[in-house]
Specification:
The chain has about 250 residues and is mainly alpha-helical. Helix content is about 60%, strand content about 5%. Helix 3 (about 30-50) packs antiparallel against helix 4 (about 60-70).
Amino acid sequence: MAEESPETQITLYDPQERNAFLKSAEKDPWEREIDGMHQAMHFIQQKARGALDGGLGREDLLKVHKIVMNDPFNPEKTGVLRNVPVVVRGRINGEVKLAAFEPVDVHFLSEEFNEFAAMLEDKTSTMDSEAQISEVVELSAWAHKEFIKIHPFEDGNGRTARLIVDFIFRKSRLPYIRDWGSTRHEYDEVVYRIYSENNVGLLEQFLAIKLLERLAEVRSKSLNNANDIFTRYIDQRAGECQAFLENETL
């Protein structure tokens, strides 16, 4: 039987979704990856800002993965749990290493993913601008660590995990981290070490440092007026973040 063309394979989608996939299929892989990330970030922003209610749950995670993968040629692998084992590797100091954890076995994947998603939805449903920096950072680090350990998808787990962190930051009315890409070597090492050393505090510190840097960036672009409500809010959050980091180093 002849293999179907990408256009034939997606005829089951509704017309709007079909047109979007066909348009995406015309682009290079790197363009689709960038588009997918932008679209996923837009969804996260809508969800976090109240345009869509509640915390980040199971269906949201599946949707985020489908959007961020933006793969018109393998739609059956996006937004669905994997049904095959995966091997996780990372580049640490220029050397490719196996991850210091075993991804969840496919036989237990659905149960563990559903349990994680339910906890995440519950924990994020009440997050807002009143959340302490310590609460935001600790929840973000926990969610990232658990999601990566489960490794629910064949590909795109790292991108989805970082978007979970973005959601928690945004829902707490904090700026999202912008430099995941330019500091990937640092990020990859931290992610490796939290499992090899069983120390999620390393990720908490990494996230707090990146948040503090981002707050400083936002502060530099705001009105130079200490009495401005937004400026005072940013200064307050930066102070909390600095206090958290100082407490972590004691």
